[in-house]
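Fold these two proteins, one after the other.
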Amino acid sequence: MKVKVLNQQGKETGREIELSDDVFGIEPNTHAMWLSVRQIQAHNRQGTHKSKERNEIARSGKKAFRQKGTGGARRGDMRSPLVKGGGRAFGPKPHPYGFKLNKKVKDLARKSALSFKAQNGNLIVVESFKFEAPKTKEFISVLSNLNIAENKTLFLVGEANNNVGLSARNLPKVNFLDARLVNIFDVMHAQKLVITEDGVKALEANFSNN
C-alpha cells in the first residue's frame, strides 16, 4: 500500500511511502480487537470495592434478643446481616479484573487496528515534526494544516521529540506517543492517526522482531 507523504504545512512532498501489507494491509480481525481492548480496560479497573462482613463491624457480640417469641427472625448479635448497620453477607472483595491474552492475539489486534485506519482513509503520513521550542500555538497550526483540528488525533513518532511532546500535551484531543509503545486502545480511541516516516519504520521493525 502506497501513501502520500505530507509536510508540516499539510502539503504534498511529491513522495510516497510503501506501507507493509503485513502491518497496514491485513483483513481486520474484529474479535481479536475486541479481546485486546477488553483486556486493557479490565487491567485499568481498580477492583478496590469492599464491604464489611459481620466480623469487621464494631458492635457488641452479645445476643441482643431471645431466640424465640419475638415474632422476628432468629438472629444473633447486632453484627448480623439481618440488622440495619450489620455486616453484609457475601459482599464484594478487592480483586483484579485483568486476564491473560496471548502475545500473538495482541499483535494481530494492533495490526488490525492500523489496517482499519488505513483502509478507511484515517491514516496520514508526514515527514517529521521539528519544533525549535515548545509552542502549543505552533502545534495547533499543524493540526489546521492537516485539516484534523476538530478530530481526536493520535500522533506516532519513531523518536520522541521533547519540544513536540510539550507542545501537544495541553491539547485535549491530541495524544502523542512513541510508535513502539502504542496499543490498540490508543489507535481505536483516535479518529485520525498521524505517523511520521520514522514512526512507520519503527512500527514495522517492532512487528518484524516479534
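Now the second one:
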Amino acid sequence: MNQTGKAVGPRPVSGRTNPLPILQVTTGFWASQALMTAVELRVFTVLFGGPKTAAEVAAEVKADPAALEALLDANCALGFLHRSGERYRNDDVSNQFLVEGSPGSYVDLVRCMREPLYALWEGLSQTVRTGQAPAAAGGKTELATARAYHNGLYATMMRVAEILDIEYSAYGKILDLGSHTGAGALCLARRYPQFQATIQDRALFQPLAEEFIHSMKLEDRVRFAAAEPAQGEPGGEYDLVLLPHFLSKQGRAAIPGILENALQSLRSGGTVLVTEFVLEESRAEPKEAALFRLNVLASHGSESAGALTRNELYRFLQDTGFTSVDMVGLPMFGITAITACKG
C-alpha cells in the first residue's frame, strides 16, 4: 500500500519481484508467539531481579534449558531481552510493561492475545465466509478481555489529557460509557481531584470496575451504574462524556442513537470525547485501525465490522447536533481522539 492506501505492485529486486513482504506477514506469528510464550512462562518477571543464565531461568520457570535458551535468544532478536555471554537481562521496555504486578503492566493484555483472541482469529476464514463469529465463551471471556485492555485504555487517556487542548479544570462531572472498567474516568479522576465520575456499563462488569476503583482509592468520587451504555443518562447534565473504543464495536445503525443519548447526557457547552480506531477514506490506514476492524469481525461477526471512517464519524456527530468537532491522531497505535461540543 502507498500513502493513499492504494495497492502498488511488488518491488523489483535485481529484475525480480521481492516476496519479502509476504514472508514478513506470513511468519508474523513467529514473533508474537515468541513474546507470548515468554510472558506465559514468566520469563520477564524472573529476569526483573537481574541477569540470569538460561539454566537459572529454566529452573525457576520449570522449563527445558536448551528449549528455553532458544526462546530467550528469539526474544533477544526481537529486542525484549539482551544477552551478555551466558546471561540474559530485560530490555527497559520489558521491565516497564512485561513484569507481572508492575504498575501499567501489559502482561494481561499479552495473555489475552493468546487466549481468547488467538483462537478467534484462527476461525477468521469461517467468520468471513458466514459473517458469524464463533460462539462466544460468555461472560468469563468478556471479563478477561476487559481486564486485559484496562491498562492500555488508561495509558491512552493519560496521553489524551496531555495532548488535547481541553480545559479539564472547568469540568466536574464525567460519564464514562461502555469502557467496562472505567479506565478513562479513573485516569481523569486521579489526575483532576475535582472530578466526580460515573462508569455506566452492563452489570457483568461492576465487580471488575469496582475492583479498580477500590485499588485506586477513588470510591468517594467514582461510582459504577449498571445500565446499557448505549442509553447514556439523558438529563444527567454531565460536563464530559467519554466514549472509549465503543462506537467501532457497534452496528452502524446504532451509532446515531448512541451519539444522541450522549448528547442528551451533557449540559449545554459540555464535551464528548471519543477515542477510536478510525479509518481514513482509503479504509487501509492507519494500518492498526484496519487490523482492529478485523479483530472486531473475528470477535463479534460482520454486524459490528463496518468501517468507521473519519468523515463518516464527523458527519454522525454533526447530524446529531454536536458542534466544534475536532479530530487528533494520537501517537499510540493508530488511535484517534475526537472531541465535540453540545451547543
